[in-house]
Amino acid sequence: MTLKVYADRLSQPSRAVLIFCKINGIDFEEITVEFLKHQQFTPEYKEINPMSQVPAIVDGTFKLFESHAILIYLASAYPGVPDHWYPADVFKRAKIHSVLAWHHSYLRRGATGIVYHSIMAPLHGLTFDPQVPEQARKILPKSLSILEDYWLEGTGPFLFGNSEPSIADLSLVCEIMQLEFLSEKEYREILSPYKKVLKWIEDTKNATGPYFDEVHMALFNVQNEIRERMVKQSISSHKGGSESECIK
Amino acid sequence: MTLKVYADRLSQPSRAVLIFCKINGIDFEEITVEFLKHQQFTPEYKEINPMSQVPAIVDGTFKLFESHAILIYLASAYPGVPDHWYPADVFKRAKIHSVLAWHHSYLRRGATGIVYHSIMAPLHGLTFDPQVPEQARKILPKSLSILEDYWLEGTGPFLFGNSEPSIADLSLVCEIMQLEFLSEKEYREILSPYKKVLKWIEDTKNATGPYFDEVHMALFNVQNEIRERMVKQSISSHKGGSESECIK
User: Fold this and answer.
1) At the topology level of CATH, where does B3-85 sit?
2) Which of A29, A240, B227, B238 could form an S-S bond across to A118 if both were Cys, CB 3.0 to 4.6 Å?
3) R_g of chain B computed on alpha carbons
């Protein structure tokens, strides 16, 4: 039975899982769950992921959600995945778990906090919290600084100075790519101080090509449409949440 | 060289790591980093954990932070840790990674959001965000419902219906114990609807005794003092953050 990946390419953790499957030649069926159309709330999907989030997988009778857990599972359960994605070495593996936990408390809160709560959700009638983007704008630069000065220390181009990418590189870079939904000016303002981060994004794209661009195409296809709608609805990414009505 | 565990017993992830070491007979030196005295900000500690959080470990020359990563590392690197703590089985392990990731986005945001940002930080001159407890009070009951109805489904007393605890049981129960800093009335109000959760806390205590109580003694020792100070400073846990001055 083929692995089923329930994903939306507009969701950054979904993209990480899809790219991982493609680059590692894992045979899978992609089932689109469009979160902007609220498809994650159907009773059928809630049977797979009661948290109503993407991605999730069904592998035979085994159901799993949370993208980090999925990436680790795929790297462990599928033969032929090169060791660098999720090294067997206990020390290297521990560092990956450490940065993945950090991802939750810092980078995700920063990037998703801005993009989801001030752009995606208000534009599409999903529940959002207008206070979140304000907090996220403080967390994001702090997170990018930590990436630049700590996680990207070392001689190699990837996290921990490694010479090849791990599931953490893929997961974190996909997170940062979500900032492409901001205006071009704001995207540049946020990222331009972080030269190592910018180089690392490019290195990760190159290491996972052509799948990285293929899977991110969905993001770029709606990027302009979303930016135009934001201008029309006067929901600029600067003043966003605070002027929109919060849906409870 | 003995494993060094940098911890503060008032921090819930610190307690999880300490209890795990004790119950598994891992020889370690406990080095207290009192976060209420800002000891996590010393240059020496920042060399170990640049995020200035507890816990962290130093094992020989290997440094690691983030409690989930530490628990996985200890369960994997130290011989003699029973399999149930972090099973070798790829499916069981995947479920543990899934609930640990969920812990970050739900239960931790709920419990720490209330306790740290409306009690611990305002009382001790640490930076806090007065908006966080408000969000946390929405997330916490949702998290407890998911625990009750989803993660604690099954016949056994532990997560996923297991008959023995894993690192996830320990980590999540220590998180909930942090709610003991709230008033007795509020603690009861929050937890009493969740019968399975209450039983699971007791089962986890019993499965990790006497270390669970020994390590949590620090919490109960300061519980009354903190509750009294909260009353004195009119920072009740109900109105807390919104009336206190936010330290920037």
Assistant:
1) Glutaredoxin (3.40.30)
2) A240
3) 18
